[in-house]
Amino acid sequence: MSIDFEDLETQVEERGKVIKLDNGVVITAEDWPGSGLAIGTINVLAGSTVEKEGDEGIMHFIEHMSWRASQNYPNDDEKLSAAASLGLGVNANTTLEGVNFPINGANESNYMLASNFLEASRLIIDSIHQPLFLDESIELEKGIIGTEILREENKRAHDPSMERQRVIHQCIFPNSPELMSTELAGSQESIQGITAQRLKEYHKKYFRGSNIIAGLVADFSSNPKLLDQICDLFSKIPKGVETPFYLPKVETPFEDSTYVDINVGGEGHMEAITYFYTPPIYHPEFEKIKGVAHLLGGNCNSLLYRNLRLKNGISYEVNALTGGTRSTGTLSVFFNTPPDNFDQAMGLTSECINALREGTFNEEMLEAYKTGYLPQFMVRLKDPGWIQVELQQRELGKRMGIGTPQVETVKQLLSLTKEDIVGAANTYLTRDHRILKFL
After folding, report:
1. What percentage of the chain reaches a pLDDT higher than 90?
2. 43 and 131: one domain?
3. What pTM value is reported for the model?
């Protein structure tokens, strides 16, 4: 079964719309005709990386305060009651890159009634645009966020996987320590120093139209005025100055191939992860690199599975994964094995990599990869919201100068050839690398 990409583009044009308001707000909208339902999200494209020293956690603090009193809902209880009456979920989250406010259903429902979407949007836009930052509420939130920080500290202290991840990050992304930050909420000390004045200063600078992109999916056909009414709500937000989009620093390629031994207290068991640097995610070459990773260790049809586990029985878990950031990509190769089998496992891994570089692998593996991926994308096309996501990815790509929307990504994947895999393997799996051994 194939995908008609021309038909997909027709659907995007007929049911999707990009609206750019004078105040800088960008809205990507998708009509969901006949559904009677709606869902949305509002993204403020300024996250914890804009915080100055001493203000750590303030963007997350503003996120919390947005669900407190605001201009049109001056009472906390009344705001929450209004949200509940609309079937609106109360949620938001802060990342390095921004603050996200979903417009979705309560009680674990993703969707809400389209008839309530305008008032739900009004409530959330007011919360984003006009929070009151009352002193009493600020003091209450300091206690709440302090408890949140304590919970995360306890989790880090008792979860070995978090320490493992920290060590990996130090080795692979030394130029961007903020990527490993688990302290987006700040510290006990920094949140105690937060004042209404500082909250207002950050809010005025970053929670502005030029930093907002919203995605809306609703039964707009049943109410032709709905989208214009929501746009009118967004138009009241001051324009402000666009914040440069956060990009991690580009990592310097390894100068040699070395081992890094990490003792995690295991006995009779060893894990090894080999990291290669690649172009960043969203790079045009990245689908080729993902293809290399899948053939190397993506599932039970992969070279690593067949050679380390099926034929030689020296490893239980093997995989090869792509990852990284918008600045530096990675391809990691993983296996676990008893220490006595480590050298054999490394040798077999090298043989698998060489099979990709030399093109001696069975080409049917590549076709199986495409066949396995295709249903995932086809299911996604049945879900409401894929058009809005496609349009938003295109708009974010324009803003950041990088990015590959989902439809183009699938086009690239389905057009992969054996020559593409061999070329990518010879380009990226010949570089100096880091081998992390967890003992």
Report:
1. 73
2. yes
3. 0.92
SS3 277: strand
Across residues 329-357, what is the average pLDDT? 94
pLDDT at 155: 82
Which of 363, 365, 373, 360 lies closest to 297 in space, CA to CA?
365
My answer on whether 287 and 403 are in the same domain is yes
Same domain assignment for residues 90 and 210: yes
Number of domains in the chain: 2
Q: How many Å apart are CA 427 and CA 412, to the nearest integer?
A: 18
List, in sequence order, every beta strand (DSSP E) within 177-269: 212-218, 258-262
The runs of H, that is alpha helices, within 298-417 are: 303-304, 342-358, 364-382, 386-400, 406-414
Higher pLDDT, 170 or 206: 206
What are the tens digits of pLDDT across the range 362-381? 999 999 999 998 888 898 88
Whether residues 184 and 272 share a domain: the answer is no
Residue 265: left (phi > 0), alpha (psi -120 to 50), or beta? left
User: What's phi and psi for 335, nearest 5 deg?
Assistant: -150, 155
- 275 with 382, same domain: the answer is yes
Residue 375 is part of a domain; what is its CATH number?
3.30.830.10
Written as one string, the DSSP assignment of 94-117 is E-SS-EEEEE-BSTT-S-EEGGGH
End position of a domain, from candidates 200, 234, 268: 234
3 or 290: which leads in pLDDT: 290
Same domain, 226 and 299: no
Tell me the DSSP string of 45-81: S--GGGPPTT-TTHHHHHHHHTTS-BTTB-SHHHHHH
Would you say residue 59 has pLDDT above 70?
yes
- Asked whether the beta carbons of 23 and 235 are under 8 A apart, the reply is yes
Burial label for 371, CB within 10 Å (0-12, 13-18, 19+), is exposed
What's the domain range around 49? 5-234
H or E element at residue 171: helix 160-172
Contact 126, 72 (CB under 8 A): yes
Average pLDDT over residues 52-63: 96
User: Which residues lie across from 141 on neighbouring strands?
Assistant: none
Does some domain include residue 250? no
Model pLDDT for residues 212-245, shown as the tens digit of each residue = 999 999 999 999 999 999 999 999 999 999 999 8
